[in-house]
Design brief:
The complex is a heterotrimer of chains A (about 300), B (about 290) and C (about 450).
Chain A: H1 2-34, H2 54-60, H3 63-96, H4 101-108, H5 116-126, H6 133-140, H7 153-181, H8 185-193, H9 198-224, H10 228-235, H11 247-257, H12 261-293
Chain B: H1 2-37, H2 42-45, H3 60-66, H4 77-108, H5 114-123, H6 129-143, H7 149-174, H8 177-185, H9 190-219, H10 222-227, H11 236-239, H12 251-272, H13 281-286
Helix pairs in contact in B: 3-12, 4-7, 4-9, 7-9, 8-9, 9-12
Chain C: H1 2-23, E1 40-46, H2 52-55, H3 58-65, E2 68-75, H4 77-90, E3 97-101, H5 121-125, H6 129-134, E4 136-137, E5 140-141, E6 144-151, E7 153-157, H7 164-174, H8 184-194, H9 209-222, H10 239-253, H11 266-274, E8 280-283, H12 288-291, E9 303-306, E10 320-327, H13 334-344, H14 347-355, H15 363-376, H16 379-393, H17 404-420, H18 425-442
Parallel strand pairs in C: 1-2, 1-3
Antiparallel strand pairs in C: 3-10, 4-5, 6-10, 7-8, 7-9
Helix pairs in contact in C: 1-14, 9-10, 9-17, 10-17, 14-15, 15-16, 17-18
The chains are: A mainly alpha (about 300), B mainly alpha (about 290), C alpha+beta (about 450).
């Protein structure tokens, strides 16, 4: 009896576990090991020199690393929240549209077709202060200033966030839309009959149903947002003067350009905590939302 | 009272219409700029003062890409396209099959360590690419699967799995458990109950998971640039860099390849998203 | 660019026949073909349209020697560097011929063989001596340069210098005649004079990563300074260093450059000059064709090129780099690999490549190229070639030690901080020098 309850899920999950362990976990252990070495790509012998926590000690006193860490946290928070709000709005709009649903839905997903590396070049040229489309348009409208989008600290982060939000809001929108479509009609009809306003219906019936989907989207994006690396690298490469330095640009430069893979992996491991925090936070929210809905736990 | 209610409704309708239009424009413009750029000579794209109304629309960038002389801008686009197609669709298919099994297990069964395992899957996705790319390179190099489609499929399956499992789990949770149980009481095998009763209801979830998985693999750059090297396995995003040299860039040409890359993905999305509609019938079925 | 190329290619076929006949005997010792039937060489090459015409010649080598070339990797400049480093780390260095660059070469310690053992002295002597010097690391000739040599010359918008009203205004303000700048001091005057932000800018510079450090480095040298002393102690925070950095700062403060320059690298710079909104542009030979092609560039027909200006020490700037090919220690058939490397950098290969625009690295190819361009009657190309030929005489490579690229990553944020006014030039350079010194100490210098 007990075996019967246990074995089907294990069986079903086995292929997924094997792949994750083989392709993610094992390589990760290898890089965890290198984070305790002074491993330099161009000097393979350094792979075998164990230096304990030296890399980590060095990072804990590195101001630039922690500045990048904090900035990444802020950027992540802003990006995820804005993307979710916009995605929710977009999904509601598209859901209500009477005609052209199919086309609208496809348009909504349009930015998802753009590879992050392309998005980087695209927005770098759009925000170029001299010949970019944005400043050209502003100048045509009579603004006699060339706005240094990619140089000013806040504008540069704004430009990067714009690129990131443009490319990723669709993911929220489509997930929330899918959630909207899975909402049973009855409670909404019942609410209408009971005389609830549109807002009340939305707040007390639609939103709770959507919550799990929103948190799924949030979690997935918080995991996935490191993809923004390509965008940031091409647009500002963390500059000028480290004003837009994020963990991903820093780690990647340290690891591959400087070839200091050991140190870079130590950074990566510290940054994993950031991801774990976001993931754990949204995961708990997701569980709470599910309990609220009385769904199967 | 009635009038104001009706006029408010009209206002709301118009507001929604305008809102939709504005939102769609914001989404489209940066993308359409790429599409437009692919048909314009470079002199017009990045120009000052800006050339707002294209003076010169032609297929030169496309002609160059498909020409046979690499010195003139030819790119082995057909190879890249084939590689991208094979890698993205195979990895999606595998991720969906494995992910459906996993998602179903999470949605339907209680077992010890379930939440931990679930969280563990998710966390496997938090790994920064850099921590993964070098060890993968080393392991792949030792196994001899570097620069192969198989290697890329493997890593994309692993990347897409957590995401697919999670999504499908969420959708199966929405399908009442009683439906499957009822079918089994009526004499269906568990497999039949799943395939004929539960799966159709979660189809929309599977469809969106598939779209996501496909697009992730289709557009991924960082790992592909590390693990592929020749025309035998290079994918389209990696091919974009063919338009750069150490100091120069052919932006128009890059846009043209980007369009070649975007169009199939867009068509596929247009076709597949139809299945998202299946979710619409859900409420009715439940009632 | 495309139409130009076609013309060059058509002309080159004819030119080659003639040259082949006249120089065949003279070059007898500078020759390395052989019978390599059954040998397959794995090669990693830089990809990109500009580099492809040479690879088309590989079939000729295969037919002549019976060997085969398997191109196992073709990536962009930085991507292939990443791959080669990963290969070293993974120990997967059994391939034979690899892309190399004078700025990257010192990093790959122990990966490549000394080519001097496989090439005749005549071959090595046929190259420009400075190129052989730049390709030599710790006494080993680790790469043989192809005709992709890069040094910057000064592109400028001609019409600006032909406008009488401007000439008068300039003379009144600065007290000397308006002509394309011969010194960096003049360059600065003129850049500020021409600037009319946000519509028009005097000049622009690369503002991030290795690019800005390279530009700083060459200015430093032209001001009489050096990055390091003989013991590899940083010396770039000298007075010469401050003067060099001050030029970047002044141009930025005067708004003579777009304020976005700090995010620019080469693609932004080329596109900016081609848009017609920049007066002076120190840039690479790779853009020459692009700038004068009406389909690519708004300044086509209005482009002048002269040798780069000189600094206060009388030395000209001349940060340079060259692409080349190397052979790995792990290569199973080094003779065949050497033959391929020789072939790809041979007189005929270089001439074919150089006719498309890039600069050669062999002495006799320079001579033949100049004759060819002169005969073609293309005045713009003659001007370009003359300017770059002179530019090449002042060329120098980056400091040759493995951590050069890594040190640039420590330096550039400080340079940016000074340009933005966050730090004084001396403070920024001192900070950078301290960080570089720390790093060097870590590596035991």
């Amino acid at each position: 009896m007990k075996r019967k309850i246990l074995s089907p899920p294990v069986l079903l999950l086995l292929p997924a576990m094997i792949i994750i362990v083989a392709v993610i976990l094992l390589p990760l252990l290898l890089s965890l090991y290198t984070s305790f070495t002074p491993f330099k790509l161009t000097r393979p012998d350094t792979f075998y020199r164990f230096i304990g926590l030296r890399n980590y000690e060095r990072l804990f006193t590195d101001v630039y690393f922690w500045a990048a860490f904090g900035r990444t946290f802020v950027v992540l928070t802003i990006a995820l929240n804005v993307e979710m709000m916009l995605g929710l709005g977009l999904a509601l709009l598209v859901n209500r549209a009477i005609a052209g649903q199919r086309t609208l839905r496809t348009i909504m997903m349009f930015p998802m077709m753009f590879s992050p590396i392309l998005v980087g070049f695209q927005f770098k040229f759009l925000f170029n202060d001299n010949i970019g489309l944005v400043n050209n348009a502003l100048q045509s409208l009579g603004i006699a200033q060339a706005i240094p989008w990619l140089v000013d600290e806040y504008l540069a982060l704004f430009a990067i966030l714009t690129a990131e939000i443009w490319s990723s809001t669709s993911i929220f929108a489509i997930l929330i839309l899918a959630g909207l479509m899975a909402i049973p009609r009855d409670p909404i009809e019942a609410a209408k009959v009971d005389g609830c306003t549109v807002w009340q219906t939305f707040r007390h019936i639609t939103l709770p149903y959507l919550m799990p989907f929103m948190f799924i989207a949030m979690t997935i994006r918080s995991l996935d947002i490191a993809r923004a690396y390509d965008i940031v690298q091409i647009m500002t490469a963390g500059g000028p003067a480290r004003r837009t330095e994020l963990l991903w640009t820093l780690i990647s430069r340290t690891g591959y350009v400087d070839a200091n893979m050991g140190l870079a992996n130590a950074m990566a491991y510290i940054s994993i905590f950031l991801s774990i925090f976001f993931t754990w936070y949204f995961f708990r929210k997701l569980m709470a939302a599910r309990r609220y809905m009385g769904g199967a736990q | 009272m009635m009038v104001s209610h009706a006029s408010r409704k009209i206002l709301l309708k118009w507001g929604r219409w305008v809102g939709t239009f504005v939102a769609m424009s914001l989404i489209c413009i940066p993308g359409l700029w790429i599409v437009l750029s692919s048909f314009r000579p470079n002199v017009e794209i990045l120009s000052k003062p800006a050339v707002w109304i294209p003076e010169n629309i032609n297929l030169d960038h496309y002609r160059a890409i498909f020409s046979s002389d690499p010195g003139q801008g030819a790119v082995p686009v057909w190879n890249y396209f084939q590689n991208s197609m094979i890698i993205a669709s195979t990895s999606t298919l595998i991720a969906i099959i494995i992910g459906m099994a996993g998602g179903y297990a999470f949605a339907r069964y209680r077992f010890r360590g379930k939440n931990t395992l679930f969280l563990g899957f998710m966390l496997s996705r938090t790994v920064p690419g850099i921590a993964l790319s070098l060890p993968l390179f080393i392991v792949y190099a030792k196994l001899g699967i570097i620069d192969t489609e198989f290697g890329m499929i493997l890593i994309y399956v692993a990347l897409n799995l957590p995401f697919t499992i999670w999504l499908i789990d969420g959708f199966f949770r929405q399908v009442p458990e009683e439906l499957g149980q009822a079918a089994q009481i009526d004499g269906c095998t568990p497999w039949q109950a799943f395939w004929h009763v539960e799966f159709p209801l979660a189809k929309s979830g599977v469809a969106s998971a598939a779209i996501f998985a496909f697009l992730t693999s289709w557009n991924e750059f960082a790992l592909a640039s590390q693990l592929t090297r020749s025309t035998g396995s290079k994918t389209l995003p990696v091919g974009l860099l063919d338009f750069t040299s150490e100091f120069t860039i052919n932006w128009g040409g890059m846009c043209a390849l980007a369009v070649i890359m975007i169009v199939p993905a867009l068509l596929l999305t247009f076709v597949v998203q139809k299945h998202l509609v299946a979710g619409l019938t859900f409420g009715g079925v439940k009632g | 660019m495309k139409t130009n190329r076609k013309a060059f290619l058509a002309g080159s076929a004819l030119g080659l026949l003639v040259l082949g006949a006249t120089s065949a005997t003279a070059l007898a010792a500078d020759e390395l073909m052989g019978d390599f039937t059954g040998v397959t060489l794995q090669a990693k090459l830089i990809g990109g349209n500009q580099y492809e015409p040479l690879y088309a010649r590989i079939t000729e080598w295969e037919q002549a020697t019976g060997g085969k070339v398997d191109i196992i990797s073709k990536k962009s400049h930085f991507e292939i560097d990443k791959e080669i480093k990963s290969d070293i780390a993974a120990g997967s260095t059994g391939w034979c011929v690899g892309y190399n660059h004078t700025s990257f070469a010192p990093q790959y310690t122990g990966l490549y063989v000394d080519l001097a053992e496989y090439l005749s002295k005549d071959t090595i002597d046929a190259f420009v001596p400075a190129m052989i010097g730049a390709s030599t690391v710790d006494g080993d000739l680790v790469m043989l340069p192809r005709a992709q040599f890069d040094v910057s010359a000064l592109y400028y918008k001609k019409s600006l210098y032909q406008d009488d009203a401007r000439k008068e205004a300039f003379k009144a303000e600065y007290g000397y005649d308006l002509a394309p700048p011969a010194t960096w001091a003049e360059f600065k005057d003129q850049a500020i004079f021409f600037a009319d932000p946000p519509n028009f800018y005097g000049t622009q510079y690369a503002g991030k990563e290795e690019a800005i450090v390279g530009r700083f480095y060459e200015l430093l040298v032209s001001e009489g300074g050096a990055m390091f002393d003989a013991d590899w102690k940083p010396t770039f925070n000298s007075e010469a260093g401050q003067r060099a950095l001050q030029l970047f700062v002044d141009l930025y403060a005067a708004k003579a450059v777009p304020s976005g320059v700090l995010s620019y690298v080469w693609d932004d710079l080329g596109s900016g000059f081609a848009s017609g909104s920049v007066a002076l542009n120190l840039d690479w030979p790779g853009w020459a064709g692009y700038f004068n092609d009406p389909k690519e560039s708004r300044v086509a027909g209005d482009v002048g090129v002269i040798v780069q200006p000189q600094g206060s020490s009388g030395k000209r700037t001349g940060w340079s780099g060259a692409h080349g090919f190397s052979i790995t220690e792990g290569c199973a058939n080094k003779e065949a690999a050497a033959s391929l490397v020789w072939f790809l950098t041979s007189h005929d290969s270089q001439l074919i490549e150089a006719k498309n625009g890039p600069l050669p690295t062999r002495k006799d190819v320079w001579t033949d190229l100049i004759a060819f361009v002169h005969d073609s009657g293309d005045d713009y190309r003659s001007e370009v070639l003359t300017a770059f030929q002179e530019a090449a005489q002042h060329a120098f490579p980056v400091p040759q030690f493995p951590e050069w690229v890594e040190s640039t990553n420590l330096i550039y944020p400080e340079l940016q901080a000074a340009i933005l006014g966050d730090k004084s030039t001396s403070q920024a350079l001192d900070d950078a020098a301290e960080r570089v010194a720390d790093m060097m100490a870590d590596y035991g210098y």
